[in-house]
Amino acid sequence: MLRVKDIHHVVYRHADLEALEAFLGDFGMVVASRDDDRVFFRGACSAPYIYIAERAETPSFGSIAFEVESRDDLLKAAALEGASEVQALDRPGGGERVILHDPAGRQVDIVHGISTVAPLPMRPALTYNTADSKQRFGDTQRPEPGPAQILRLGHIALGVQDLHANLQWYTTVLGMLPSDMVVEEQRDNPHAVFLRIDRGDDWTDHHTVALFGAPRDHVHHSSFEVQDVDSQYLGNQWLTQRAWTPFWGVGRHLLGSQVFDYWYDTSGNIVEHFTDGDLYNRESRTGYVEGGSNTLYQWGPDMAIEDFLGHE
C-alpha cells in the first residue's frame, strides 16, 4: 500500500488553449509557465502547478496525479502489476513519477520530488460575526470583486462502471479510507463512495476521490479550494458577468459540507470551487446514507441527483 500525501494535479487536453486560459483566469488560477503545447496553471499555495492543459485536436481527460511521501513509495508503485518504470518529469519543479491505471483504465500518476514554490499573496480569510459569537470589533470587511482565488486542488469525482473494483483499487493501492457511502438498504452494495487520504491522526479533506456508479467511465469534475464563502460568491458573480457557462451553485453539499459552485470550461468539462469542507482523520467513522437528492445538497438551486450525475 502506498502512502499518499495528497492529490497533486490533473491533466486535461484541449483544442483551444487560449480560450481555456481566459476561462481559468476568470475561474481563479494563474499561469505558472507554458511551452508550445502545454500550459501549467497554479493556485496560491506552494505546488508549482495543479492543472496542466495539453493541446490536442480532441478534448479529453489526461490523468490524475497523487503525491506520495517518499521515493520508496515510487519504487513500490513501480513494482505493481502494469506499472511503468520510475520516470523523470519534464515539468516545472522536476520530480519523478510512476504511471498506474485504475480499473477503469484511467491514468493515475504517482509523483514524488516535485519542488515547491513560494505561495502567492492571499487575502486573509474573513472574520465572521455570528449571532452568538462576535469576533470583529470596530473593523469593516469589504473584499474586492474579482475571480475566486484558487488555493489548491482538492478532489476529483469519477463516474465508474465497476464501483466495487475501483473502490477496492483506491483503498488497497492508494490506501484511501471511506468517509461516506451512499447505499440502498445493503451497506456492502454502495452506489457512491467518498474516499479520503489516510494521514493517520492528521486531519484531511472529507474526500479526495469520489466514486459513483455510471453507465460509462468518465471524470465528472475536478474541484478547487477557495478562501471563504465571500470569495466563492464574488467569484461566481465574476464568472457570471463574463458570460461563462454555469452548471450549478452556489449551494452547500450534505456529504462533506462544502459550499460549492460548478462551471463548464471551454471544452465542456465541469470544474468546481469549494470552501468550508469537513475534515476527517483515521479515527473518523464511515457514514452510511440512503441515496436520493437529499444526499446531494443541503441548500442551493434545485438539482435532481440524476441531472447532476448525468452531466459529463
UniProtKB/TrEMBL annotation:
Pfam families: Glyoxalase
Domain of life: Bacteria
Gene Ontology molecular function terms on file: metal ion binding; methylmalonyl-CoA epimerase activity
CDD domains per the UniProt record, alphabetical: THT_Oxygenase_N (cd07267)
Domain VOC: 6-113, 152-276
Record has Metal-binding as a keyword: yes
Any one GO biological process: L-methylmalonyl-CoA metabolic process
InterPro entries found in the cross-reference section: Glyas_Bleomycin-R_OHBP_Dase, Glyas_Fos-R_dOase_dom, MMCE/EMCE_epimerase, VOC_core
Keyword field contains Metal-binding: yes
Residues annotated as transmembrane: none
Keywords tagged on the record: Metal-binding
Name by which UniProt lists this protein: Bleomycin resistance protein
